[in-house]
Design brief:
Elements (H helix, E strand, L loop, with lengths): L2 H29 L7 H16 L2 E3 L2 E3 L2 H11 L2 H19 L4 H25 L13 H22 L1 H4 L4 H32 L1 H43 L3 H15 L4 E8 L4 E8 L3 H4 L4 E2 L3 H9 L3 E3 L20 E9 L2 E10 L7 H31 L10 H18 L3 E8 L2 H8 L1 H17 L6 E6 L2 E7 L3 H16 L16 E8 L6 H17 L5 E3 L5 H6 L2
């Protein structure tokens, strides 16, 4: 069914209820006019009804109200006509003051549904033998209980249909939650209505008011407490993130803190922080809290691609109420394939994109504007913390990276070699070391220039990185020499890696100038293994260097593993 048809039928339903309700009210007033001598008592009940409408305590998927207590005492003390009139006037007065924007339809509907609920409940009450006078008595218990049940179910049903467009995407567990809170409200309000009616009989309206006002005060205090508790959670989360700005510059810890503090104020099933990688022009998942982490960590987004990329491009938050009904998301991989509700907030500082935070829940329609405001405030603090941590990480990376080749520098290489040697000493783990050198590199520089030589060094470094594992350490050892540390790798496996590097470099074309075709370069490689060849760092480096020298002396563009170098070569080369 199209949205226009749904809207038409919903509007038709609302106006049918309004005409039916006020038609019933008119008929009731004609059949049994009110006793004008009791106007003061009616006015007191209306005031209590207005107060009950005002002091509603909002809770997740529901609310707590004393409105039914006024309805019940009106019915017990008087009749259905008085009950309806008090409910309608209370709704009109309360809504016209508090919710002027919804006065036209919502207030009319409220009055009409109160009328229909009261008429249905009083009809069942009379049909089951309910007494017209002396209603609070043991024989009248069942009719009164039926009045409460019928009023509850009719009222809940009519209001549910009225609110259908706003929560039709929620699962039935959300509807059951609303049903639960409504049930608790009636279980709380019905006994109070009976008690008020009993006091009313003994002391008049003053006694009933004296009972009702303290209860309203308690409700008001409860509402204040809930609001303050919510605000306290939000401020506490903002404080924790702000505090992190000066206390922690480690990016992974900062990202983890942002996700954990977000969950305190906006509950979610899955949370992801994407960082903007300027060099690759990609949004990359840097922190994930989700059972689907393994699937999500490999999904990256270019700018403007997918909902994540669009939010990063526009800088505007985005709410997805139900991903299954959102046509934009049906063919896009990522978080929307696992979750129904999504909230995506851009993270930026000084108009510079830092990343995107995305949270989701399995239930549809879980997030609204309030969550957008909370997460946007949190995101502003998070962006500053993340920018500081990223800057620190960048500076730290620059300190261990060779500026030309973008691989690790000589200093970091020695640090990692000592770490691997310590691992061997403690746990007995084997590791290998590769040293390689570009063949005829001086001749290459002399012929094509240093700029072409620098480009060749950079390209070879990237080829080596692509030919090795993530855990392997690729470094520029010096000049045209490179070093590769291979953790948990024996000599045979190290030869396989060396051969992969050798062939990859040999098959790569190197541009030297616009007027000259691309050329090839080759490398000579030496391999040594700990503990097979040596146990100390310096000895291992020396043996790999000697194996490299042997490769160069015996033809270049080849691999020499130290354990396979002939003994006479050892003697000849010292």
């Amino acid at each position: 069914m199209s949205g226009a048809r749904k809207s038409f039928f919903h509007g038709l339903y609302v106006w049918l209820i309004i005409f039916l309700g006020y038609g019933m009210l008119t008929a009731m007033l004609k059949a049994k006019p009110l006793d004008v001598d009791l106007w003061r008592e009616y006015a007191v009940l209306v005031v209590l009804g207005v107060l009950a409408e005002w002091f509603v305590v909002s809770v997740p998927q529901g609310s707590l109200s004393l409105g039914f207590a006024v309805v019940f005492v009106s019915f017990i003390r008087f009749d259905a006509t008085t009950t309806v009139l008090v409910s309608v006037l209370s709704a009109f007065i309360a809504n016209s003051i508090i919710s002027k924007d919804s006065f036209f339809r919502s207030t009319l509907f409220n009055g009409a549904q109160y009328t229909i609920s009261a008429v249905a409940a009083s009809t069942v009450y009379l049909y089951t033998g309910g007494q017209v006078v002396d209603k609070i008595s043991a024989p009248n218990f069942i009719p009164l209980a039926l009045f409460v049940l019928i009023y509850f179910f009719v009222n809940h049903f009519l209001v549910t249909l009225f609110l259908w467009p706003s929560f039709r995407m929620q699962r039935w567990n959300i509807w059951r939650s609303a049903m639960k809170w409504d049930s608790l409200t009636y279980l709380f309000a019905a006994p109070i209505g009976v008690l008020m009616a009993m006091i009313y009989e003994k002391t008049g309206t003053l006694g009933a008011v004296l009972l009702f006002i303290p209860l309203l005060t308690l409700k008001y205090l409860l509402r204040l407490y809930i609001n303050l508790e919510t605000a306290n959670k939000e401020l506490s989360a903002l404080y924790e993130v702000a505090k992190n700005l000066g206390s922690n510059l480690e990016l992974s810890k900062t990202l983890g803190l942002v996700l954990s503090e977000t969950k305190r104020v906006v509950n979610y099933h899955t949370g992801i922080i994407y960082l903007w990688e300027e060099e690759d022009r990609l949004l990359v998942p840097a922190a994930i809290r989700s059972p689907f982490a393994e699937k999500l960590k490999s999904i990256v987004y270019p700018l403007e691609e997918g909902l994540i990329g669009q939010v990063a491009k526009t800088g505007q938050p985005e709410i997805v109420f139900d991903s299954k009904r959102d046509r934009r998301l049906r063919s896009i991989p990522g978080i929307n394939q696992f979750l129904r509700s999504l909230l995506i907030i851009p993270l930026s500082m000084d108009n510079k994109l830092i990343g995107v935070i995305a949270i989701g829940k399995k239930e549809p329609y879980a997030f609204g504007q309030k969550q957008v405001q909370i997460l946007s405030s949190l995101g502003g603090q998070a962006a500053v913390a993340m920018a500081n941590a990223m800057l620190y990480k960048k500076i730290e990376k620059l300190a261990i990276t060779d500026g030309l080749t973008r691989v690790y520098n000589h200093r970091y290489f020695y640090k990692k070699m000592e770490e691997e040697r310590e691992r061997y000493r403690r746990y007995g783990t084997v590791f290998s070391f590769i040293m390689l050198d570009l063949d005829y590199f001086k001749r290459f520089n002399d012929k094509y220039g240093h700029r072409a030589g620098d480009h060749a060094l950079y390209t070879v470094a990237q080829v080596i990185k692509k030919s090795t594992r993530m855990l392997d350490v690729v470094s520029r050892y010096g000049g045209e020499e490179f070093a590769v540390i291979l953790p948990e790798t024996d000599a045979a496996s190290a030869r396989v890696v060396a051969e992969r590097i050798l062939h990859a470099v040999q098959d790569t074309y190197f541009s030297v100038s616009e007027d000259h075709p691309p050329v090839h370069v080759t490398v000579s490689i030496g391999v040594a293994t700990c503990p097979q060849d040596a146990e100390s760092t310096n000895d291992l480096i020396e043996l790999a260097d000697k194996a490299l020298y042997y490769s160069k002396e015996t033809g270049k563009n080849k691999i020499s593993v130290w354990s396979e170098v002939p003994v006479n070569a050892l003697v000849d080369n010292g």
